[in-house]
Amino acid sequence: MAPPARSSQSSSPSQPSGKGEVSDLKSQLRQLAGSRAPGVDDSKRDLFKKVISYMTIGIDVSSLFGEMVMCSATSDVVLKKMCYLYVGNYAKVNPDLALLTINFLQRDCKDEDPMIRGLALRSLSSLRVPNLVEYLVGPLGSGLKDSNSYVRMVAVIGVLKLYHISSATCMDADFPSILKNLMINDRDTQVVANCLSTLQEIWTAEGSNSEEASRERDALLCKPLIYYLLNRIKEFSEWAQCLILELVAKYVPSGNNEIFDIMNLLEDRLQHANGALVLATIKVFLQLTLLMTDVHQQVYERIKAPLLTLVSSGSPEQSYAVLGHLHLLVMRAPMLFSSDYKHFYCQYNEAFYVKKLKLEMLTAIASESYTYEIVTELCEYAANVDVPIARESIRAVGKIALQQYDVNAIVDRLLQFLEMEKDYVTAETLVLVKDLLRKYPQWSHDCIAVVGNISSKNIQEPKAKAALIWMLGEYSQDMQDAPYILESLAENWDDEHSPEVRLHLLTALMKCFFKRPPESQKALGIALAAGVADFHQDVHDRALFYYRLLRYDISIAERVVNPPKQAVSVFADPQSSEIKDRIFDEFNSLSVLYQKPSYMFTDKEHRGPFEFSDELGNLSIEPDVSAQHVEADDEDLLLSTSEKGDVGFPLNGSSYSAPSYDSSKPLTASNTSSDLAILETGVHHQASASLAIDDLLGLGLSTTPAPAPPTLSLNPKAILDPGTFQQKWRQLPVSLSLELNVSPRGVAALTAPQALIMHMQGNSIHCIATGGQSPNFKFFFFAQKSEELSNFLVECIISTSSSKAQMKIKADDQNSSQAFSALFETALSNFGML
Q: Quick check: keyword Transit peptide in the entry (predicted)?
């Protein structure tokens, strides 16, 4: 038979030139439909392969449905498989066409070949068309009684599919009872496993509405069934064994002897090569002995060797999964694993995620006996060329220092890190030194001597700069240059894009003022003026709070901001004991790897209000940025949400009057509140030219005239729901595509992407979603014209590795795209991004 004619534009069978290709296929399939000539099956195979190929790349070949069904009248299993694949793909989309397949599928369900019977039954149950369930009950009933185990296995899963299509039809046909009988009496273990899985799912779903279903679900945990399955467990596949062990983990034995019988029966499962099976067995052991303290400790000792063997043998993914479970066990009983610390040393060829988890393990098991060896190993990693691992190792050393009593050697190691002259090492070390000083203030003299030699200009990361500023304020009496360093930072307020740094700078200057008033007077005035004019609500509120506190009573202000402090004994655990217990109960599941209970990543209220389509990528919803809270030192004071409401200053759209100062007047800590008039007279700040400030403090200050409005005016209170954004993004064409160069300062600022989001909202450009992670960040922004309901949509992808920003702009009003692009670029430039 001659091949179909091809268009000159397409030379590949997977790239048809148009409807002509599909029409040619249709005519050729029709010619072969009733043919019984020799070799006709081979010709059908070639045509079927083309149809499947077109279908796979997204070409609509549903018009061939009738011809494909007619050509399926053959005993060739390969042709049957391809036809079933085609039918299953188009049946749900075209229910009317699916009706054409019922006759030949029901006929194939009675074929002499058990393979064809099983394939036909699987395809029939996979149609998932509610109107066709009546045609499914009969073949399923026959399949469950079939003499061939493959057909019975397919029929059991078909019952579950039927239940999800029409639960009432499934229950009326009494399929659960048939499955229960089949589970107990069938000789084939895979059929038994499928019955168990199907019944568990059906009774769990029905249990919330029916007491009888709840009793049936509990009946799966009866002693005869558990023992029946355990005695046959070696006959089952590995997947089926895991299913049985998951059921056994929920079983409550009647006494200790029964517990030991089950554990002895499953002892050899701990030596299995399959990691999932070993973890499932461990879960059974842990759950059975949970109330037997001594035996439970012995179980930990028993399971160490199998787990450590799995970590060292197998793929990186398996090692990570097993390490995640080991980490959970270590957190519950660190002393039992402390002598095995060398198993958690990092190998040079291991994946990053495995190394990171091993570092967490070393941190958890570090005891007084092995602290020196572990810290020595971690210090070697700090000089690693792999920067993320070097950062994690430094953090691990700091965590060990915070949980040990004798920290002399560890502090010396940390201070040596500051002399390595590597930016990322210095940044991580500064954060840790801050925490160390909060717990061990007696080390302040040694630490400050080293920290005082570090220039704030060389620190770019917000957390590290915030830590340095905290130390400058907290120990300003011991650091000769502290007031002048802080003054330099205050004078360059606009160059600092991190709200966290600005918050710490305000507090540090307040502390420095109470300790060295003459030298800090000017810097404090600058900072308070800039803080009150700041676009970030938390920074604005804190500056206003400090200013009002100083005006009220300077001695009270000192007691509030710089009170006598006690050393921090224990830092807060990010996870409560309840959460950890929930994770332990869900041992051998994703909860252990995610380190959170399953409800936190399965329930909709914890996942977010909506999910973007694949077009927009896997993004997270950006909450209202005005409500964002910047993580700050627990010694700092922030206004609460209710107090912010009392202040009544909106984030955008209004302008405020900053307190000012007169540097000619002296200012000391003994001054009364009336002496604080220095803060009310004449300060010039870099932001005052762009932020006009109303007299909201009742000080009778004059205001700077507002600048002329831009050519394109945006609505600062624009609202666009995610669904509308997604719909518009699909419908609107791209108005402009830009590629911009990102400055080094912009790259550094993206260590805290929230700062960029806050800044853009200050320019009436709102972020609706963010995604990605370093080095590639993705933002979706929107803006609206103030005079009409016209939207601008922006996709902004920033790569910190290539220092490039790619933007796509879509607009309801295409003519305004260029003006909006100019506003968007100006906003990025003001942030320091370009």
A: no
